[in-house]
């Protein structure tokens, strides 16, 4: 059985969406045991109507405190020992759970991952990784915001973790890895990308194909795209806001006259369907890799489907033994170097 | 009169588009004298049909060499002394021209700016700056790719140059300046943004309003947005490719059935008109600021309108004395510090 801690009080739509997503995940995968962290009274009354069969795979863990997005993450994680995030992270650390899923404060989830769940031996830093929608399907993009001021050797480790993830969870035998850069020419780049590129070129255990230009990320130019957290985050946020911006312009145009309003009737359905292919809800949340257990962070505005898929993706990650594979790889890494 | 050097052989559409753009600029602004750098025989035959009046404001300077995008920029700039880029840059350096406009190799244009035109006294590095389309109109975004591995004090200088540009050329008396960052909270950021933020906060001569989140750049969250070249370039390229990506999806949807094809007839015209508001052609090219003269780099795929506007914008920059204002500000900067 797979034990997953769910932060019931995380995100804008808690607790209802989180609990609905939990229920759907439990129904879809009967190997999942969910540990629901939050105020016991609220959770118990909400899940009272669930089927007995499903409820037999649920425990409620009373976590009275909530870390808000306004608090300083590291301080809050240290202080609020009875918060759902901290208690869930402790359960992962102590092996009672295999993964923590939360749509709560990003900073607090990252801090709890690093400070409480803790890094695997040999791992410099845990990258935040996510499957992002591209023209060629979903690709793994990391680090999306966990470790600013990265060092070259961290990026090499991110590449290795990305490779193992794509092999185990996405069934891609030999994922192509690229490093995000200003251009693809070897002489281009900053000190970090140049040094990381050299280290990656020297590795024989990865299908490293060199640089990828930023503009090619959204066109799906590699299976694993490695960047430092500052740039990775900037690119991801820009993609999201530019999509919003262009769709906003389209909506204005569609509302501008009678003929465009009629046209809107014909295209909005197919367009929404098409955009669903690029919805990240299917992919669950973003993952902190390289820890003593999986930490999955969902969007703050996560809905039922996001939570459901985050739980299912976490279960798949665990079932495939991805964490163990990463642990072994870094134990070996340690011995060799 | 304003003397502008135009690289006739730069870009994918040279020499025709460059010369057509040149002609249009000459017609629109009779204070412009254009110095056309490229193979004399080709240029002379192309401009033979131009009006006498216009031709009286044109000189042709024979530049037989061309620097290609495949060449290593700095090496090519050092070696190809008879290339249009190098000869044009030398004319600016020596005061024979006030500005160089080129759609040629980006690397070579940047290198020629730094190595030949040269920095103004007191300027650490010349940023590449461009007016980018946002929801709230065009805003100045810099550094877009000139100086990787930036130092905090460089970013402060970029902010000051941005302020002076917006005041002189865009007539914004007190432009709001923001530093691009992972988040707006003071504790967020990498070592570079944190240090630059502190330096900027200490300045009383700029309307510095703190951080701007990457996602808010395209929504026009400030008049001047300052970033290091690596991240600035990544964000700009991501905006461009994401727009292309979303419009590509829309086109697929519009082609998907008879009813969407009919809808396309109604919306493509208004949509194209709307998108023109966001066309960067109106803004000319990207500018290297802080040099002994202006260097303007147009897109490699620049068309007639881009070249025309790049020349007109350069003329405006010079007419407003923007370069002199920057020169004076940095001379004062030097004396004070």
What does this structure look like?
The structure is a homodimer. The first copy, chain A, is an alpha/beta fold. Chain A has 12 helices and 11 strands. Chain A has an 11-stranded mixed sheet with strand order 3-2-1-4-11-10-5-6-9-7-8, with helices on both faces. In chain A, strand 10 and strand 11 form a beta hairpin. The mean pLDDT of chain A is about 95. At the A-B interface, helix 9 and helix 10 of A face helix 9 and helix 10 of B.
Extended strand count of chain A: 11
The most extensive interface between chains reads: A-B, 55 and 55 residues
Give Rg of chain A in angstroms: 21 Å
Task: Give the H and E element order of chain A.
Answer: EHEHHEHHEHEEHEHEEHHEEHH
Given as residue ranges, the uncertain stretches of chain A (5+ residues, pLDDT < 50) are none
Distance between the termini of chain A: 36 Å
Helix content of chain A: 40-55%
Q: Which structural class is indicated by helix and strand composition of chain A?
A: alpha/beta
Oligomer: homodimer
Helical stretch tally of chain A: 12
CA-based shape of chain A: globular
Strand composition percent of chain A: 15-25%
Question: What can be said about the biggest beta sheet of chain A?
Answer: 11 strands, mixed
Strand order of the largest sheet of chain A: 3-2-1-4-11-10-5-6-9-7-8
What number is the mean pLDDT of chain A?
A: 94
């Amino acid at each position: 059985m797979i034990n997953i801690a769910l932060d019931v009080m995380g995100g804008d739509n808690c607790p209802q969406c989180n609990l609905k997503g939990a229920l759907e995940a439990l129904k879809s995968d009967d190997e999942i045991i969910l540990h629901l962290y939050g105020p016991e009274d609220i959770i118990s009354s909400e899940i009272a109507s669930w089927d007995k069969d499903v409820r037999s795979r649920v425990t409620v863990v009373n976590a009275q405190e909530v870390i808000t997005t306004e608090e300083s993450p590291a301080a809050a994680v240290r202080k609020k020992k009875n918060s759902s995030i901290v208690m869930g992270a402790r359960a992962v650390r102590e092996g009672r759970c295999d993964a923590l899923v939360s749509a709560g404060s990003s900073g607090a989830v990252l801090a709890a991952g690093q400070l409480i769940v803790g890094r695997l031996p040999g791992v410099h830093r845990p990258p935040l990784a996510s499957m992002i929608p591209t023209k060629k399907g979903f690709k793994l993009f990391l680090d999306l915001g966990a470790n600013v001021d990265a060092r070259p050797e961290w990026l090499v480790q991110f590449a290795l973790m990305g490779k193992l993830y794509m092999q185990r969870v996405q069934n891609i035998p030999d994922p192509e890895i690229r490093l995000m850069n200003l251009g693809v020419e070897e002489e281009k780049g900053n000190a970090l990308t140049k040094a990381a590129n050299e280290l990656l070129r020297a590795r024989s255990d990865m299908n490293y194909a060199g640089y990828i230009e930023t503009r090619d990320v959204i066109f799906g130019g590699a299976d694993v795209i490695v960047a430092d957290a500052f740039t990775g985050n900037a690119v991801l946020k820009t993609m999201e806001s530019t999509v919003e911006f262009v769709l906003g312009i389209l909506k204005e145009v569609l509302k501008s006259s009678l003929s465009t309003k009629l046209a809107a009737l014909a295209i909005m359905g197919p367009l929404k369907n098409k955009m669903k292919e690029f919805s990240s809800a299917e992919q669950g949340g973003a993952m902190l890799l390289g820890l003593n257990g999986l930490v999955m962070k969902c969007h703050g505005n996560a809905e039922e489907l996001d939570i459901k898929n985050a739980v299912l993706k976490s279960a798949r990650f665990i079932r495939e033994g991805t964490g163990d594979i990463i642990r072994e790889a870094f134990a070996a890494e340690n011995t060799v170097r």
